[in-house]
Amino acid sequence: MAHDEVVERYSGLARAALTGKVVVDCEAEEFDQGCFGTAGYDDTTGVPEGALRAGLGCGDPVAVAELHEGEIVLDLGSGGGIDVLLSARRVGPYGKAYGLDASPDMLELARANAARAGATNVEFLHGTIEAVPLPGHCVDAVISNCVINLSDDKPAVLAEAFRVLRPGGRFGVSDVVTDGPVDPIRRAAAEQRVGCVAGSLTVEEYRALLRQAGFVGIVITFTADHGDGVRSAIVQAHKPAIGPGLEIRPMREADASQVLSIYQAGLDTGQASFETVAPSWEGFTAGRVPHLRYVAVDTETDEVVGWVAASAVSARPVYAGVIEHSVYVHPGCQAHGIGRALLIAFIAASEDAGIWTIQSGIFPENTASLTLHQALGFRVVGMRERVGRHYGAWRDVLLMERRSTVVGA
User: Fold this and answer.
1) Which of 298, 405, 314, 273 has the alpha carbon at shortest distance from 351?
2) Are 37 and 57 in contact (CB under 8 A)?
3) Cα separation of 56 and 54, whole Å?
4) % of the chain with per-residue pLDDT over 70
5) Which residues, at least 6 apart from 376, have a Cβ–Cβ distance to it below 8 Å?
6) What per-residue confidence (pLDDT) applies to 182?
7) Three-state secondary structure of 206-270
8) Calpha distance 202→87 (Å, rounded)
9) Over the stretch 16-36, which tens digit does the pLDDT of each residue have?
């Protein structure tokens, strides 16, 4: 297994570092060119020499994680502890930095480096990045330095990062990625040269897995070119923000009954749609884009309190970036900002997916929905007068749309 190979490899490097050696986990020419190690850090003041000697990363995730005083940060695959120590300095005495590593030898090295640095707001945990030994919603930022590419279950890693983050929390990692399709033999050789035992993700694969986990606002920035399509990169994203005790995550099949119940409650108001009866789950899922469906849930009970989803407006290629959306909130949970949080997350996710226009039809009498949409950049582009009968009365529909300033600008 790649996991066992990785642990053994880095345990050996840790033992070497404990004896005072400078360790290198990629071929010498890569390290000498400044692609790995401590060359990517702007400021390592106060970091013990032992941590610098064991620096095996491919960037400086601490610099892009936007850490603030008092925050809690988790470093996935913390190695000799350099990023944990730098994070601990940024979050200050009222914050905390966790380091997680599967190698007992690396943990010994990291704890020794923390002791030399006099860092008291750090804690190093033994475990795997695919099963983080921390409760959900407990950290403000997740960082990692050239480690996720080593995992043989990358979807699990990203799902765990999403789980432990608080709503609004940030994901900022340095990693090795592949820039598009590459000859598999050349790609394998390049990955071996830079130490990717389990193989790197392509940029699009990375984006897709982050979206699948629930992340939005995804940005991938190349930082170094290792040849044959293999690059170092900074990967940034965030968990959707929402009020205390709640979380926005991708919609699941297990949410079906609650989603449809909220849908029916909205239809029963007479202001949500011309429809009067919610569809079956099969009908609901068949008509909606799979990767643009989210729910807001209570973090204690996982009860669904709202949802947002999208439908394609046409199968014609020219409309590939145009969707129509719906957002519904449980009648007992309205006026708490849930609809706004869902719509903000949905807009970010749609732009991540390459959507340039979001459309919606809203009854003029539904002033709360109109106000919400206008506040988030939607504009009225027209009215369909007396377009249909609803409970025996002819109704108008306002056509609203939001054109992205990011996609197709």
Assistant:
1) 405
2) yes
3) 6
4) 81
5) 340, 343, 344, 347, 402
6) 64
7) HHHHHHHHCCEEEEEEEEEECCCCEEEEEEEEECCCCCCCEEEEECCHHHHHHHHHHHHHHHHCC
8) 28
9) 555 555 544 444 444 344 445
